[in-house]
Amino acid sequence: MNKKVPLSILIALVIANATWVATSGHSGPVIALIFYALVAFLCWRRDHFQAGIIAGVVGLGIHAYELVSWGLAGLRTLDVGLLFINLILPIPLIYFSYKAYREIEKMRK
Question: Mean pLDDT, to the nearest integer, of 8-27?
């Protein structure tokens, strides 16, 4: 059960960044799309939820930095929404990836 939640969050992040790629000319969403898609694959096929924890920390850090350094000036409404999706979803991704990791470790012992 704990595996489905982080995978759902990762899929939501992939969809959000694919939308951002389609509507924006920036390269950042392309990098995030590839990054989250790779992490989703690792979690789904290899049960490597440590990658989900790392992706959450990295994603949260990068988007918090972007928000603080660049602000919201010059962003369209859709871009602001997608930025906040990328800022908020990594928090539960960290938590639920950790829970899934712990569950898998208990099953292996």
Answer: 94
